[in-house]
Amino acid sequence: MIDEAHAPRERAPWAVRPEASRGRLHPEPGGDARSPFQRDRDRIIHTGAFRRLQYKTQVFVFHEGDYFRTRLTHSLEVAQIARAIARRLRLDEDLAEALALAHDLGHPPFGHAGEEALDSQMRPYGGFDHNAQSLKVVTLLEARYAEFDGLNLSWETLEGLAKHNGPVRRPAGYIAEYDARHPLDLASHASAEAQVAALADDIAYNNHDLDDGIRARLFTLEEAAALPLVGAAFQEVRARYPNIPRERMITETVRRVINAMVQDVVQEASRRIATLDPRGADDIRAAAEPVVAFSTPMQEANLLVRDFLFHRMYRHWRVNRAMQKSKRASQVVFQLLHGGPQMLPDEWRERAGEPGSPGAARVVCDYIAGMTDRYALEEHRRLTDPNIPG
Q: Region annotation Disordered: residue ranges (predicted)?
């Protein structure tokens, strides 16, 4: 007997159709059996930016332990969840996966501390946003192909990256710049596949930070179990496996929370889609609200998890120390290179222009945003310690 959840399924009418893709900015011939979105996924995986995610952190700096999540492991986990949800909703799994793998390419080193540092330094020049930077990475900064800058991804993948957090009513910075030459219909919602990738990001992020926080001893499993969503999973595991080792107790609890959230998204999305009765992917884009979302009770439970993590993990004194040191290192590197772009490597220096100029600021920002945690710390030492060769 075939398991219905794993059986091949025909795409729903509201799924994005690869054969109806709006194409690429630079037209390309076919040449193999892959769909446009499979080609996008493969190009993303082969980028230098994707490989560098291995040494960019979620919360902990890379040298704090090999076990904790990095941007790379997070992206892989998001992709797995996105494919699972997309399959259940009969969407294009390859597009959902490509978006999941690309969504963090623009993150700078040191997680949110690095983003805050760059945003503060770039405030006079339009600020810094990692979602816009992800779009810039795949459309400009990755220089791999002879005929174009970036990866020349399909319109649907670029749309999903630009609208990662929903419609962009007032585009600014690089998103506005790119949209001017390759319109992405920014005022509408993204495809259902892009919405799935965004929700998968939330599911993975919160649950894996719970896992890492417990293993880092920032809080206990029992303290997290005071949250209704986590508590229900914890009680189920404890009742079924009363003598299970603690490490397995943690894993079994977190995986049940993930499953509960995935099930909720599938049920709520199915309900909203049935109400909307879309005839195609453009009906999803034109809807008054997202079709892929948590139910109200799950959204409330998820907010409680976020609030718990904010106070018990992201504001823990150990994390605060690491974040402040990392933030300061990023700011110092930016200030030194912005004032002295002649210290940039050749390929960056040629683009930077005059010291202290807006052009130099943007080039230095792009340079730092592409660094790993380790490289950023080494660059800080090279620029500030006279005993270390440049």
A: 1-40
Q: Phi-psi category of 173—alpha, beta or left, where left has phi over 0 and alpha has psi -120 to 50?
A: left
Stated length of the chain:
390
Q: What is the extent of the structural domain holding 165?
A: 36-318
Q: DSSP readout, 41-104?
A: HHHHHTSHHHHHGGGSBSSS-GGG-SSS-BHHHHHHHHHHHHHHHHHHTT--HHHHHHHHHHTT
E-strand ranges in the chain read: none
Structure token pair of residue 65: 């332990």
Q: How far apart, in whole angstroms, are the C-alpha atoms of residue 213 and residue 203?
A: 16
**End residue of a domain, out of 288, 318, 348:** 318
Q: How far apart are CA 302 and CA 258, in angstroms?
A: 11
Determine the Cα–Cα distance for residues 338 and 352; give it in Å rounded to an integer: 9
User: What domain count does the chain have?
Assistant: 2
Task: Say how far apart CA 334 and CA 195 lie, in whole Å.
Answer: 34
Backbone dihedral angles phi then psi of residue 374, each to the nearest 5 degrees: -65, -45
In degrees, rounded to 5, the angle at the alpha carbon of residue 382 between the alpha carbons of residues 381 and 385 is: 65
pLDDT in tens, the chain (390 residues): 234 455 446 899 999 999 999 999 999 987 688 999 999 999 999 999 999 999 998 665 444 544 467 899 999 999 999 999 999 999 999 999 999 999 999 999 998 889 999 999 999 999 999 999 999 999 999 999 999 999 999 999 999 999 988 999 999 999 999 999 999 999 999 999 999 999 999 999 999 999 989 988 999 999 999 999 999 999 999 999 999 999 999 999 999 999 999 999 999 999 999 999 999 999 999 999 999 999 999 999 999 999 999 999 888 888 888 889 899 999 999 999 999 999 999 999 999 989 999 999 999 999 999 999 999 999 999 999 888 876
Joined together, the tokens standing for residue 30 give 């076919």
Tell me the pTM: 0.93
Return the ∠ at Cα 139 (arms to 133 and 140), rounded to 5°: 80
- Cα(209)–Cα(311) distance, rounded to whole angstroms? 13
Same domain, 215 and 362: no
Let me know how many helices (H) and strands (E) the chain has, helices first.
18, 0
**Same-domain pairing of 290 and 348:** no
Residue reference for tokens 């700078």:
108
